[in-house]
Design a protein that fits this description.
The chain is an alpha+beta fold. About 40% of the residues lie in helices and about 15% in strands. The chain is built from four helices and four strands. The protein has helices at about 5-25, 60-75, 85-90, 95-110; strands spanning about 45-50, 80-85, 115-120, 140-145. The protein has a four-stranded mixed beta sheet with strand order 1-4-2-3. The longest helix is centred in the first third of the chain and has 23 residues, at about 5-25. About 30% of the residues are buried.
């Protein structure tokens, strides 16, 4: 199995997990269980942005709050942020991913996290899939470091 193939398998599995979560959250009548493996660790949160936007939605703010609460509960010393932009967004605005990271960092400070907050340029490889649109490329991950 090649590394490229393995990444695709993991990404599609992650997409299946997220599709099930989104469908359940939208009160879908029928959700098929799809094989899931390699889920994101419990100390990692993922939030999504609207197209060409660095603004946090109310749902994204609640995800940041959840990360801060968990970080305080487990005595994490640091929260690492990795923000991304889709290729077409980066072509129009090369600083969009950096602005997304800055907005998330501000929100973490607003919620009173006392530990360090860092921006990771590379970011962790999460099991997210590149489906037909760029939704999964418009994300930020928050990783708690103990």
């Amino acid at each position: 199995m090649t590394n490229r193939f393995a990444k695709r398998v993991v990404r599609y599995a992650g997409a299946a997990v997220l599709a099930c979560v989104f469908a359940t959250a939208a009160d879908a009548q029928r959700t098929e269980l799809i094989s899931l493996f390699a889920p994101a660790p419990a100390e990692t949160r993922v939030l999504f942005f609207d197209v060409q936007s660095a603004s946090l939605s109310p749902v994204a703010k609640s995800i940041v709050l959840s990360a801060v609460d968990t970080a305080e509960r487990v005595h994490a010393k640091r929260i690492e942020i990795a923000a991304y932009a889709a290729d077409d967004e980066s072509a129009r605005d090369s600083n969009l991913a950096a602005r997304r990271a800055a907005v998330v960092k501000e929100q973490i400070a607003h919620y009173g996290f006392q530990g360090a907050v860092g921006v990771d340029e590379e970011g962790p490889e999460l099991p997210l899939a590149g489906l037909t649109d760029s939704t999964f490329d418009r994300r930020a991950t928050l990783s708690l470091v103990r």
